[in-house]
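User: Please predict the structure of the protein below. I'd like the answer in structure-token form so I can feed it into my own downstream comparison script.

Assistant: Understood. Taking the following sequence of 92 residues as input:
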Amino acid sequence: MSSVFTEIYYLRAAFETLPSGVRDSMLNHYKSEVLRKYGMTDSAFEHQIALYNANPSALQALEEEVSRILREHINSDSTRVANGTTAKDTMN
């Protein structure tokens, strides 16, 4: 689940400066794509959110895992910038 939440975090961050109607429309569209990628329905995702909200220690563990993943991405991006490479360069 942490990968799903991480990707949705990135979507929200990417669209946060857009007008609310556009932002919500794009977020819903791309959120559906993320969920499809992980084989989840929107109702299954919402059910998972309810389970996490009912279990604070599980929610905290999920938040810590998402934070760890985000830090890894930031560190990786920083290293690429320092080395003068791009994400495209590292994909080959």
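That's the full token string. The helical segments are 2-15, 20-37, 42-54, 56-83, 87-91.
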